[in-house]
Amino acid sequence: MIRKELSFSKGKRKFLFCADSTEEKSLHDFVHQAMEEGIQFDFHIVGEEPDSFLDMWFNQQKMGSYLYISGGWDFVNRVKKIALAAGFSHEEMQMKVTGPFKKKLICCTCHAGNPIEDEAYITCRNCGAELEASTHYSPRLEAYLGYVSI
Amino acid sequence: MNSMADLRAFPYPFGDSDVYRYSNNAIPLDPPNPIELTDSYFDEISLKRELLTKHPERCYHSAPHTLDAQWEVVDLIIDNLVTHYPDRFELEKKDDEWVFSNVQTNENITFTFGDSTSLKIEPLDFIGRHVQEDLLLMMQRDGNLFLDAGQLCFPANWSLYFDAGMSFKEIHSPIPGFKDQSLDDRILQFLMRIEAGSPWWRKNWSLLAGNRLDTSLETFADWGQARKRVTKENAGELVHLRVEVQKLFRLPKSNGILFTIHSHMLPLEKFVQHPPWLEKFYSILDELPDFIAGYKGISLYRKQVLEYLEEEMRKR
Hints:
- The complex is a heterodimer of chains A (about 150) and B (about 325).
- Chain A is built from 3 helices and 10 strands.
- Chain A is an alpha/beta fold and about 150 residues long.
- In chain A, the strands form 2 sheets. A 5-stranded parallel sheet of chain A has the order 1-5-4-2-3, with helices on both faces.
- Chain A is elongated, with a radius of gyration of 18 Å.
- The model of chain A has no long low-confidence stretch (mean pLDDT about 90).
- Chain B is globular, with a radius of gyration of 20 Å.
- Chain B has one domain (about 5-315).
- In chain B, a hairpin with a 4-residue loop joins β4 and β5 (about 105-110).
- By secondary structure, chain B is an alpha+beta fold.
- Chain B has 14 helices and 10 strands.
- The interface of A and B includes residues 134 and 141 of A.
């Protein structure tokens, strides 16, 4: 799950901290805590590095590694995708998005994708239906389902 | 068809209990037939074909890696059709050259089994147009099942377009209470243990205000309106008990699972002609927890249906 705030995860063998250049500070407390507890960690501020760099980094990790990602919506989702492909599960990562969420809501009537942030209701930009945002998520469409009510 | 024949043919969905909860109520399927033809055969396959032509994006989906499994489905279903309905379906085979004939629709389809270029449409889409059942294909990998292909014309308020590609648990995540006592996990484990040659089946039920088979999520804004029109007076005619006969087959070569859904509907006024059914259904509907009634789409008119059933019970 993408969160508003991160929490320190206990009992991990190693932490991977990953932020974009604007959000590195948000992870400093956790880096500090990892150092105090003597837990191994890597810390990467990702700038221009290609996907293959991150892919190699994630693939070198052993079982029990735990990933923190912090940054803007596009950055967090890009890193998450690479991590999942490298074998990390959703339970092995925490993500924090700064700035607007750019979720997609699929209209159940016409299948149009609508950008949403935190709204509970929107009007479909294609067919005009009133849509209620749900938590039903399609990995294939990378989108949430919007229901119409009667 | 007269009323008594309708009643006899209807797959009564309730067990002995006066209480309904979600459960894994699957039992072994004997005889192991994936397909059943009813008196509505011609009307329903005509409707299916019309929906597939007009709304392919919501009625059919497949991932490319499902083609081998799709051919297994063709084999399973054609074998069932020509064996159990020999006067209605025929098959001539010469090695991999097959000619499948549907006598009722007067169609003869020639193709090379296993060669998808020999059919105009995908194998699952092709065979689905000859049966009343909706056909879903779940592929098994990484200890999980994924909805990777399906032909779905008569969904009970869900979207194949949206759910395609999802895992079993992802598909069922919107059902309130489905995760309680790990029911979702137990059913998934059960499905993954299904073996080739030993199919299973179950019945699922809901109520529908109206009588359309194509209750897709995409058209809910249209057909859902009827929920607001239910009264004690019109419930017998307007409200239908909708039962899905669901069957599960392991496909031995691809290790996929074929899930067939045959949707049956009966107006309440016919259903209540059999007094034991009337009383049992009243008890179940009266006791049904709000979260199940809500998910089954009954909340808006449960009270009116109960009042109708009470009046029917007083008459008997």
